[in-house]
Amino acid sequence: MIEILMLLLCTGIIISGVLAVRLDSLVGAVVSAGLASLFAAVTYVILAAPDVAMTEASIGSGLSTAIFLYAVRRTREDD
Amino acid sequence: MADTLLTIALVLIAFSLVFGMLRLILGHTTVDRVIAIDLLTVVSIAIIAWYAHYAERFIYLHVALVYGLLSFLGVLAVARYLEKGL
Question: To bridge A66 with a disulfide, which of A17, A71, B14, B77 should be the other Cys (CB 3.0-4.6 Å)?
């Protein structure tokens, strides 16, 4: 039961990583990269590391998405 | 009884995960993708809460709480960006 869930989550990490590289829209790519770390946090919980999951959720999903969006706004106004 | 309900919940969560990923892949506009990621955030919180009951370690519910707060922050940052505010 938990193996199917882990399979789906790891497939989600791979798909969002590929999307983050290949999408044309920069905002879509940033958001896909945030989703990869969001799924990684769930995977850390299932691998019995809740403190790592909490750090990954706060830094990977919250902080890095906001900083990337700020950088995109500062560098390319015409996207 | 509780096991049956948990199995049904896991099947529903898995379907929701698959269809959310489909919307993320197929999504025509950026807003579609942002909405799909908001959905997948809620699905992830459901997975953590389900696993906290499955593994009988209720400390994992704290992770779900922090996760909910911070993923809301991420979607909020994207919404501010799309409205040219960030």
Answer: B77
